[in-house]
Structure formats: structure tokens, C-alpha cells
Amino acid sequence: MNPDLDEVAKDPAAGNIDFFRKIPKKLVESRVGKVWAPNFYYRTANVQVLMLTPIEQLRKKLPAPPQPYSM
């Protein structure tokens, strides 16, 4: 996340953001691609999470599919 700090500062709920202006951000490589670092937490209305895992590990944790009921 690399927001425009001038836009963030316009929100009265943001408070004093001078601390964030002193720390430059850089694009760095990660296991999920390029990300901005260091990352800070801001107030937001939307959150997006990306989680990667092998499908076989997920299948082991899922319950068995329901079987049809017959009499």
C-alpha cells in the first residue's frame, strides 16, 4: 500500500501523519510479487487478503462431502 499522504491528511480521522512522511517506501520483491515496504496500517473501508496454499493441504482440512440420504 502506497497511498497519497496528502489525500490521507485531508481526512480529519487520520490525525497527525508526519511520522509516515519521514519513512520512505520502496517496492521490494516478495513471495507474492512486488509489495511496498515498510507497510503501515491505515484506517480503511476495504480490505483485500491474498492467501496462497497448495489445494491438497486445503482438501485435507475440509469435511467429507455429504452423502445422499436413502431409505
Largest sheet report: 2 strands, antiparallel
Main structural class: alpha+beta
Write down how many β-strands occur, each being a DSSP E stretch of 2 or more residues.
2
What order do the SSEs take from the amino end to the carboxyl end, as H and E?
Answer: HHEEH
Distance between the termini: 57 Å
Which bin fits the share of residues in helices? 10-25%
Radius of gyration: 21 Å
Quick one: overall form?
elongated
Instruction: Give the low-confidence spans.
Output: none
Which sequence of strands runs across the widest sheet? Answer: 1-2
Strand content: 5-15%
Question: Which whole number gives the mean pLDDT?
Answer: 85
Number of helices: 3
Please provide a written account of the structure.
The protein has a two-stranded antiparallel sheet with strand order 1-2. 23% of the residues lie in helices and 14% in strands. By secondary structure, it is α+β, with helices and mostly antiparallel strands. The protein has a domain at 1-42.
Characteristic key phrases:
71 residues, alpha+beta, 3 helices, 23% helix
What can be said about this structure in brief?
This protein has 3 helices and 2 strands; from the N terminus they run ααββα. The radius of gyration is 21 Å and the shape is elongated.
